[in-house]
Amino acid sequence: VQLVESGGGSVRAGGSLRLSCVASGSSFDRVDGIGWFRQVPDRARQGLACTSLRDGTTIYAQSVEGRFTISSDANTIYLQMDNLKPEDTADYFCAADRARRPIRTKDNSLRVVEYDDWGQGTQVTVFA
Q: Which residues, at least 6 apart from 4, have a Cβ–Cβ distance to it below 8 Å?
């Protein structure tokens, strides 16, 4: 599966951005979930949100719940980010999970090791 992120940029604290992840490839129909992650230099990649493409279940990390919303439309997965804070500054990545998971939880949906394919990332900067 090929994944291409877009929508990053610079925004003042309190503002909003919507990131997009376009998925393509013959194996896309075997993708069970799409997740959004972020990473800052010298820190581990952090899972933020996941959506099941099978049943629409959504999972959020506590740090973004209530501010970020994940959604999907055909082969595009969005991450709406509201009330952004300077600490949200990072490179943002989407990723595809091809393992079928009857029940999605934070433990099986927000960990980097659960994902098979990754995009190149889009940069988000939030200034005070």
A: 21, 22, 24, 119, 120
The SS3 assignment for 41 reads coil
| Cβ proximity of 13 and 126 under 8 Å | yes
59-107 pLDDT tens trace: 999 999 999 999 999 999 999 999 999 999 999 999 999 999 989 999 9
Tell how strand 90-97 and strand 117-118 pair up: antiparallel
Q: Do residues 9 and 27 touch, judged by C-beta distance below 8 A?
A: no
DSSP per residue, 2-31:
EEEEE--EEEETT--EEEEEEEESGGGGG-
